[in-house]
Fold this protein.
Amino acid sequence: MENVDLTLVLRSTEKASRDAEAAFDATQRLVVSVGARFASIESRISTLESRMSGLQRRVASVENGIDGVGRSNHRIEGMLGDIFAKLGG
């Protein structure tokens, strides 16, 4: 077996350990940063969902109003038809 320089092995191991620790720290910072961004995006999506729900309620209300106007117009047409029939008949 060849003569192995244990000092070189130790230095390489220590350097690899420091590099791994630095990579781990960088990954943790990235996770924290990305996590905060995801939380912000989730909050914005929740806000948009509640706004959409509000818009859906408003649209439904407008649709009901338009239906009411249509029914009123139909009744008015019927009344006018009756009046014209009485006047013309």
